[in-house]
Amino acid sequence: MANVMQKPTPRWVDRLPSHSTEPKQMQVLCLGLSRTGTMSLWDALKRLGYTPYHFKEVSKPENIKDRHVLCWREAFYAKLYGSGAPYGKVEFDKLLYRYDAVTDAPAVNFSSELLAAYPYAKVILSKRDPDKWLESIQRSYHAVIESPVFKMAAVVDVPLSILGELFELVLRDWTGGDWRNRAKIRQAYEAHNDRIRSLVPKERLLEWEPRDGWEPICEFLGKNVPEEVFPHSNKGDDVSRGVLLAARIRIVKWTFRKTIVPLGFIGMVVAGWIVLRRPAFWTGSTNRCLGFLRNFIQT
């Protein structure tokens, strides 16, 4: 019998819908690591007229429909484990079709690939004190991944499980797989910033800290400085509190669906069985049926 060749399973990114128009031109790559003011940059760029991509964008309905979390996981698998073809301009154009700027993980984990794909985009490298940055990573990424509540929710909720895996993949990429090693994470911060400086010409690079506010960004991008105060978003442990709240809600919903509803049904069955066992029920039912037939015949 001839060997039957199995058709390879298409990648998630290859399943994304085609568009009749060209993707937005990528204009700004904010390549500072997570927890360096990336949410504030996302908010600021929106107010300056851009459409920036941030980790939180994966939860938008259109991006849930397009399976963004699965695409990013696929990109990590290709980069870290050699599983499948690596992502490049073709893949990023499909995944980031609606966006003209990026900030935060998981996009910044592909900084070299994004710089190669969009060589004319301006680059903002957001920074903060390395020790405070490490503390923030521990209060966000590690607080989620190592939380018993999140681990429990991930068992019963596939999307949360994949989200947790993405958090871990971000750290694995920074540390060569040793994502629990705090010293390696801190080293990764310095190494990442040095790599961006080595790859981006000075005229295309702005090094920025949240305390710098609007002026350096607007001057760099050729935009007028807004009158409103610069946004300082996502402070402290906002990320972990938000994700863990979602995890608790998933657990409550799962518990209700798997226990409360079945118990309620069982209670109805038991109550019905008790009622049906009463002789008075059957006597009353017989009389009601005979009365209905008598009235029907007489009409």
UniProtKB/TrEMBL annotation:
Domain of life: Eukaryota
Record SUPFAM superfamilies: P-loop containing nucleoside triphosphate hydrolases
Keyword Transmembrane helix included in the entry's annotation: yes
A Pfam family it matches: Sulfotransfer_4
Xref: Gene3D superfamilies: P-loop containing nucleotide triphosphate hydrolases
Transmembrane segments: 259-276
UniProtKB keywords: Membrane, Transmembrane, Transmembrane helix
Keyword Manganese among UniProt keywords: no
Entries under InterPro entries matching the protein: P-loop_NTPase, Sulfotransfer_4
PANTHER family: P-LOOP CONTAINING NUCLEOSIDE TRIPHOSPHATE HYDROLASE PROTEIN, P-LOOP CONTAINING NUCLEOTIDE TRIPHOSPHATE HYDROLASE
Name under which the protein is recorded: NAD dependent epimerase/dehydratase
Organism phylogeny: Eukaryota, Fungi, Dikarya, Ascomycota, Pezizomycotina
